[in-house]
Amino acid sequence: MFRKLREVILKHIQGNILIYFIVILFFMVGISSGAFTVKALSDQHKGELISYMESFFQILSQKSFDAFSVLKQSLINNLQTGILTWILGVTIIGIPLILLIIVIRGFILGFTVGFLIEQMGLSGFFFSIFAILPQNLFIIPGIIIIAVIAISFSVMIIKSKLNKNYQIDMGRQFMLYSTVISMVFLVILIGSIVEAYATPIFMRFVSQYM
Q1: Are 114 and 38 in contact (CB under 8 A)?
Q2: Domain, as residue range, for 163
Q3: Which of the four, 66, 84, 162, 201, has the lowest number of CB atoms within 10 Å?
């Protein structure tokens, strides 16, 4: 079973290698843009963000922490991104908007990590490793895979419109498209659970040494 699953995954990657390259490239552009934007912030904006960060650490130091609320908010944020990408995948004009979503996700990640490292140095780097990396090991690959599948489906629709000889069962393909994306959502769910229940423990541990 696992061998067959591995073969399916490898075949999917090989068949969409160019799309994966483009999506990851746009994600990296977003990360770079976010990191460079930190340098362009005014002292006033940096001061406001530092105050927010200090308030966050005060909340983090409290014993009571509503993990379920964090889980709910994480699921809402990530599922909104995933569902929007899924919807855009069934439209002809969805490809640039999907890439825009990927750039924005990369920008947020790059800005957050860049700001932490700039303001806190090595401590900010370790905080990013323990507070941001764990959940994103699941969430970011999930979002990227959904984006690739959505773009691939959109390309298939475009081909069917432009080439009359390119005959496909659109209903069957849509069901397959939706099923696969639903399965990828499970990966994002794991990331949200990690963010809600495991990451706060890591954050509290690291914050003691900051």
Answers
A1: yes
A2: 2-49+70-207
A3: 162
Contact yes or no for 200/70 (Cβ under 8 A): yes
Considering its fold, how many domains does the chain have in total?
A: 1
Q: Which residues contact 74 (CB under 8 A, 6 or more apart)?
A: 135, 191, 192, 195, 196
Residue 41 lies in a domain: yes
**Residue 60 resides in a domain:** no
Quick one: which of 114, 97, 98, 105 has its CA closest to 30? Answer: 105
DSSP secondary structure letters along 32-60: HHHHHHHHH--HHHHHHHHHHHHHHHHHH
Distances (CA, A) of 121 to 39, 62, 106, 114, 206: 14, 24, 21, 10, 14
DSSP 197: I
pTM of this structure: 0.90
Tokens of 144: 């990227």
Report pLDDT for 48: 77
| pLDDT higher than 90, residue 86 | yes
Does residue 63 sit within a domain?
no
Residues 71/201, Cβ–Cβ less than 8 Å:
no
Looking at per-residue pLDDT, the higher value among 204 and 143 belongs to 143
3-state SS of 59-80 is HHHCCCCCHHHHHHHHHHHHHH
Amino acid letter at 3? Answer: R
